[in-house]
Structures are given as structure tokens and as C-alpha cells.
Amino acid sequence: MPRTARLALLSLGLFLVLFPLGIVRPGWPPTLKADEPAYYGMALSLAHDRDVRCDFQDVRRLTNSYPYLPINNLILMSDDGWETAYYGKPYIFPLVAAPAVRFFGEHGMIAVNMLMLLGMIWMGATYLGRFNRGSLALLFAIAFFILSSAFVYVFWLQPEIFNMFSIAVCLFLAFHRPEGGSRATSAGRSWLRVLGSGAVLALAVYNKPVLAAMGLPALWIVYRRRGLKAAAAWIAAAAIALGLLAGLGYALSGHPTAYLGVARGGVRLTDPLTPDDYLAPLRQIVERRGEEVNSWTWIFRIPEIEPHVFMENVRYFLWGRHTGMLLYTPLAVLALALFLLHTPRSASRWVLVLSTAIVALFFIIFIPFNWHGGGGFVGNRYFINVYPAFLFLITRLRPRWTVPASYAVGAVLIGPLMFTPFGAPVPNPTLQAHTRNAPFRYFPLELSVKKNVPGYNGTNLYGVRMLGRADLVKTSPNSPGRAWVQGGTELEILLLSKAQLETILLQTQTLAPENDCRLTLGDDERLVTFGSGDLAGKDKTVVELTPGRFDRISWADGERIFVYELRVACSTGKFARDKNGRPKTPLFYSGVSLTYLGRREQLDDEHHYRVGWRSVDGVESIAPGATLDLRVTVRNDGETPWSSRGPLAVNLGYHWLDGAGEIVLFEGRRTAFAEEVAPGATVEVEMAVEAPDRPGSYTLELDLVRERISWFSRRGADTHRVAVEVVEAVSENP
Hints:
- By secondary structure, the protein is α+β, with helices and mostly antiparallel strands.
- The protein folds into 3 domains: 3-30 and 90-260 and 297-413, no CATH class; 455-599, Jelly Rolls (Sandwich); 606-726, Sandwich (Immunoglobulin-like), CATH 2.60.40.10.
- Helix content is 34%, strand content 22%.
- Strand 1 (71-78) and strand 2 (86-87) form a beta hairpin.
- Helix 4 runs antiparallel to helix 5 (134-146), helix 5 runs parallel beside helix 16 and helix 9 runs antiparallel to helix 10 (228-253).
- The protein is elongated.
- The termini are far apart.
- The relative contact order is 0.07.
């Protein structure tokens, strides 16, 4: 590497390593997330107590470090019914970071990550320098490691960077062949490289055993260059190193690993805490699940593969909005392209491609609901561990414009991540807030793991789920099927349905005067224009949309889900206000409310309007205007449940007819069902009936109504009629 390039790398390194050390609390990170409480707590314990036991003093250190928010999911382990507890994560990264943590706290841990990132940049530049000019190799190596989601994990107090560094060293020692030196010296160094390559990989394997697959290309190179004896030495070095790590783990905690032979669980740390109560939630685990919970049993089971879900996850793995390689590691995709187009495709590099595929498929197959990294992730947190491997697919960087092109692509995709590694300070902030930017929002949302993707609101009604970004779409459990969307912008709402939607009905309403809302669903588009004045916010317009096609298919519990993208664009909005006329907080600039009314074919089907009247209390007379409590037993003979919640609530109602059979009152009072009435179910209801104001002979006709659609009797359903005399009450004279 030329002297100028080395000076540039040194300058960059000094900046990246030293700036975290000058940050004071509250700083980076603002609070602990994902698995950080265990790793950082263990580093504190090793730095101050030289053990990995979690006692009350350790808890105090954590809460003193992060007093701003509750500390969630501190993962601990125990083998004595939670009388004592140890940190429930591998100890090796906290042990390496402990000296820096002793003096600089969490910022020292970040500085250690920065040093390892710089080490990977140096290895990448040195390796590529064999095939390219030194300055070009350094520029690409910097782009490769910084312009990716890997840079975000530098600021995480977890071992992702540590694992990446271990894999990078393993592959560097195998793929890079230094020049110069005598033959004897070169031979000695070669053996050291063989042993070091196997031993260093053990550090990553101890954290995640599946990363052992990344040793295959190194083992292949050793075998091809030096024969079977060297390959055996590589394996022995890896095994010995792994054994030493397990032995030290046993000395620290009584177990070779934090994942076998122990009960594990997570606690939430909030004040006030006492030495006796911080483990109380975990003692309940013993009562629920027994003394021992083997946390790695899922590795030893035969996975159940659902082909449709598997293929869906593979697509998300490549270009998903929150996880896709194309978005979060664009230079890995470029490296693969350069390998296929230009680089001599040696057997060792094909083995390298196979190794990365093994790791990816392992997570997708064995944990299809959590393959991306669980509750805390940016991009694919599990797969980022093997990211350095893609650099070693490259030799010549040609054409040379690929280097500036890499920076241009990184600016668009990774720029928002670089400058907000803990999530952007936006409404409804999440670690994944960057996906609100272009081009992320145009890529598919990972529906197969949507329960682990924060930042979205949804509502269900009549077998259809409406799903949208939490900052743009507001829902309420008290109003199923209804969503308020932000005005003055264009947004996407996903409609998820087990049945294809031939046509749907949406009721629209706005608070803003003179508001134009454009709704686009598939091939259909509607423009709803709202007026102004006193009617603003009161007029409700029903829109019928015919999508013509679905956008994609997802799968859930073995069932096919049709996915439709509804685009909503409102010209303006109005801040929602409370009953006192003050703007609600947090502020929401409401454009239009969309209430899903159902599918036209579903609403028009007479099979959904069938009712069986089982019994009705007898009534002979009632005073004018009086209210009668009538006990009614009714059965749902239709094909859909009756629910008194939502915009199309099903309620009991009645009509009054006079002696000639003419309607006196059609819209009688409603009586709701306390619970949903399933098809074929029978329910008894206390029904309130208000008598006509004038005396006479009447007929009380009991009926059901699907609000906003139709009375059941108008769809061919039977009613129940009762003759009633409305008479003046007789007063008693003294």
C-alpha cells in the first residue's frame, strides 16, 4: 500500500476511533436495545468484578449507565432455579472489550468496534492491492465496509463487528499471499497463517456455530496449497481454540456455553429495584417450564419447510425493504457481479459463495419467522456477520468507474443509515425509520416476518387487514376496519386478504375543507372531492374500487394471502382536535379516514343474511312511548359471524306496523350483541323496544340490520312478528 494511502487510512482511523471517546451521556447509543444489555452488562462485570455473574451491583451499573429509558430484555441464565444468575450470552466479545469499557464505558466498546472495522478496511485494501493500484484498492475497501449496514453495527454493543472481524481475518490469512522474504521464512509464516486462520474463526463460531461454514473456503485453500497434513492442522487449530473458549466459559459460569444446559430468560429493568426482586420474573420461568430450558434444541430438529414461505423469504432476503442485500449491502451484490463477470472464478471462490449461501439458508430454513435478526435489527443482522466474505470474491476492480459508482450508490442507500445509526428523530421513530426514504419505500415490506418489523399500524375487519406506516396511518382497536391517513402526501396501505378482492367498498370522510383524495387500487382509480363549510368533516362518501389484479402473494399459517397496494393521496389535511377544540397530541395532520365496508360480492350474498328465531318473550300490551325489555333467542343461520363492532355492525332492531299492515316506524332502536355470534351459534339477548306514542293495535316486527348496508328482511331473511296492544295506563282514583 503506498505511503499516501497508509496515511489516509491512519487519519481516518484516528478520527473514527477517537470521536466516540469524547461523547458524554446521553450520547451514542441513547439506550440499550436488542441483546445489548447482556453484552454490555457482561463487559462491565468482567471489567470491574472479573466474572460474568449478574448480581444486583451489575444491575445498578446498567441502570446508572442508561437512566433515560427502561432497559429491556436483559438475557440471563441460571442452573439453580434463579437463585444465582449469569449473563445468558457468549462472553468472548465482552472479554475483549472489557479493558476499554473499564475506562470509557459503552463508548470504549464502540471504539473497539471501530478498531476492528479499520482492521477489516486494512485487510481489504491489502488484499485488493495485489491486483489493483493501492489508492484504488483503499478507496474500494473503505466504501465496502463503511457504505453498508455493517457500519451501523459499529455503534451496537453486540458482537456483529467482532464476528465479521474474525471471519475477515480467517479469509484474509487464506486468500492473501504476502510477497517477499526467504523461502524458510515464508514457509514458517505460511504455517502460522494456516494455524491462525483456523484458530481465529473459532471466535466467531463460539458466538454462532453456523459461521463454521465460513471456514470451508479457507480449509479448501489450505488443502490445495499444502496438502492434507496442513488441512488437518487447520482443523486442529480451530478445534483447540474452540475448546479453550469453552473451557474458559466453564471456568467463568460453570457451563461451556450460555446456550446449553441452562434456563434462559429476559428481564426488564426499571426502578425501583431491590436485590431480591430483579430476578423474580425469571423465577416464574421455573414454575412454567421446569428447571432446565435447553435453548439450542431447535438446531437439532428437522426443520419443517413450507416451499411457498421459503421462496417468499428468499425474495425478501435479496430485496426486501428492511432486510434486502441489494439495499443494505449493495457492494456485496457488486462484488458478486464482478466475480461472475470478470474475476477468475477459482474453485476456492466458488466454495466461498457456497459458504455464504449455507449461512443464509440456515437462518431462512431453521428460523423462517426470525431469519433477519429478531426484534432489534437494521438490514439483516444475522447475515451481516459474513459480509466480509464478499470482498474476497474480487480481484481486479474493472471498469475503474465501479469505485465512484459504489460511493454514489452508497450515498443513496446507506447515507441515511450512516448519519442516523440509531434511527432518525422522526414521528413514531424506530431503528428502521430510514425505510421511509426513497428508494426503500418502493421495495416490498417483509410480510412473512411483519410481526418483528416495528413501525406499522394495522386493523382487521371481515377477513381483510389494512396495514400502513405508523407515522402516516392511525388506527384504533375501538374502530376496527377504520384508518385515518395523513393529508398532504401520498402513501401506501396494504390490503391483505385470504380471498381475491373483485371489488371493495370504502367509506371516506375528511376533516379538512376542500380536500381532494385520490384512491388507486390496482387498475382502478377514484377521485373523491370533499366540499367546504359546515359539511366539512360530516359528509361521508362510499367509494367502490375494482382492483382487477393483486400485487403479490404472501403466506401465513399455510394459507395464501393476496396482497393489494392501495395508494392514497390527499391534497390537504387538518390537525385532529379534542372535544375542547385543542389540537390532539401527538399532532396528526389528518387527510381522510378510510373505513373498509367489505367486498361487494360478500355484502350482496343472501347467504350472509339468514336468521333463525328460536323464542321471543310474550307481550300483550304496553303503554304509549314506554320501553319494553324483550328476551329474544336467535340463531345465526348465515355463513359469516355477526359482530356489533365495526362500520358494518350487525344489530337487533325492529319495525312497527299498524293494524292495516302499514309501516309506522321502520328504524327502531338497535340492540347490540355482547359478543360475536358465529355461524350456527344461538344467542339470547335482552332487547330494548320503544312503543309507539299513540294507542292502538300494532305489530312488532323483529329484524336484524347490517348497518350501512341493509336490513336482513330486505335480503330475504325471515322476521318475527308479535301482535301488541298499545293502551293508555289506567290510573287508580283514591
